[in-house]
Amino acid sequence: MLSDCDPVMLNVCKESTCEEVGMTTEYRKIATASMAVLATVLMLNGCGTKDGAAQKPPAGPPEVGIVTIKAQRVALTSELPGRTVPQLVAEVRPQVSGIIKKRVFTEGSDVKAGQLLYQIDSASYEAAAASARAALARAEATLGTVRIKAQRYQELVKTRAVSQQDNDDAQAALKLAEADVAAATAAVETARINLAYTKVTAPISGRIGRSSVTDGALVTANQAGALATIQQLNSIYVDVTQSSSELLKLKQSISSGLLTKDSAAAQARVRLRLEDGSTYPHPGTLKFSEAAVDPSTGSVTLRAVFPNPGQTLLPGMFVRALVEEGVNEQAILVPQRGLTRNPKGEALVMVVGAEEKVEPRPVKAVRTVADAWLVSEGLKPGDRVILEGLQKARPGTPVKAVPFGSKPAEGAAAATAQPGAAVPAQPAKK
Questions:
Q1: 64-70+331-403 has which fold?
Q2: Which of 143, 173, 203, 232 has the fewest beta carbons closer than 10 A?
Q3: Does 182 score more than 60 pLDDT?
């Protein structure tokens, strides 16, 4: 196409094309230079950020939550298993044989001592009582005649009106008649007692259970099976067991002075925890402990008595008794979360030493008291035990001790501005 053009125009076109080519090359050079400058700026900004991060001040020692140990007065208790036992139990049995005519009590009700429970057919016993009274009357009548004869013979023998043998026989007959009267009197009393036994009464006051017989049943005197059982529930016993080893430790603690008995209380107080986990509202007192150890279980039985006004406690219930052992006037308690175990199973706590460095401290944990351990060796009042931040509390490392449960300190309100950071705009002054 250029060959068809005018030579003059051809030259102009060539010059124009060359100028366009030259301008395009110039633009490419400028664009390349701009990209190089931009990359340099980005690299410089990146280097500046790393340098700024490297120039931040080092962080301080880690914070740990501590608790300061204080000696305190603690009443120590033992939780022992046990069962309730009625204070008084009476099994009702007949003392004479016969047919039950009527039962006159309601099963499961409260009865009073002397209250009529069963009525046994008394016809035969009434007849026996009448016969005994008749025999007594006959014996008394015979005694009167014999006594008069014996008195007469005693006077006549002095004048030899009767022989001495006749007088001796009269005196012997008098004594025999007196013995017959005594025997008849005893028979009358026996008949009266048997007649009274036809009324079976309650020997004690309490709650009576179910009846084992009904009306019309034949019962015998002193039979093996009880007619009913009465239990007194106004107060109730609780028998608990304690191992002999624990009892020895308790005696050693008291003798060494580690534990002291409460002088205000004459007897040790006991509280109960029922089967559903609730606490029985009425405290009891420890009455006695067995003088011998059960060889089959190696334990000693302790008995406590509890008031039972609402009859909440029933015989045979399983309970747990909290028995007060004594008072430790200088007890050292450590929260359970602050105590750990080493591979040997020994108790260990981490404390903050005088130079604010972590120190491992082996201790002797005796027992738990609520949510804390009772420590007998290894700690003293004023020691600072670490409870929080144990993962950062390595032995020998410095830490910052703060009270356990306090909020961490807040940081500065604003950070120092870094190069290239945005600066908030200031309001223009009018």
A1: 2.40.420
A2: 203
A3: yes
Q: Up-side HSE of residue 196: CA atoms within 13 Å toward CB? A: 7
CATH topology of domain 94-117+203-225: OB fold (Dihydrolipoamide Acetyltransferase, E2P) (2.40.50)
Return d(Cα 275, Cα 296) in angstroms, integer: 26
CA distance 94 to 111: 17
At 12 the pLDDT is: 39
pLDDT band, residue 411 (cuts 50/70/90): very low
Residue written as token pair 């124009």: 16
Tell me which fold the domain 122-197 belongs to.
Answer: Helix Hairpins (1.10.287)
Hey, is 412 helix, strand or coil? coil
State how far the alpha carbon of 222 is from the alpha carbons of 91, 124, 193, 337, in Å: 11, 18, 15, 65
- Using DSSP's 3-state secondary structure scheme, residue 6 falls into coil
Task: State both tokens at 29.
Answer: 């050079």
Q: Tokens 């608790």 appear where?
A: 67
Report the pLDDT averaged over residues 391-415. Answer: 69
Cβ 99 vs Cβ 237: under 8 Å: no
Convert the pLDDT of each residue in 109-139 to its tens digit: 999 999 999 999 999 999 999 999 999 999 9
CATH second-level architecture of 75-85+231-329?
Answer: Beta Barrel (2.40)
Phi (first) and psi of residue 126, to 5 degrees:
-70, -40
Task: Report residue 316 as tokens.
Answer: 């045979």
pLDDT digits (tens, 9 = 90+) for 299-344: 888 889 999 988 899 999 999 988 877 788 888 899 988 888 888 8
CB atoms within 10 A of CB 274: 14
DSSP states of 237-279:
EEEEEEEHHHHHHHHHHHHHTSSB--TT-SS-EEEEE-TTSPB
State mean pLDDT over 176-186: 95
One-letter amino acid for residue 39 of the chain: A
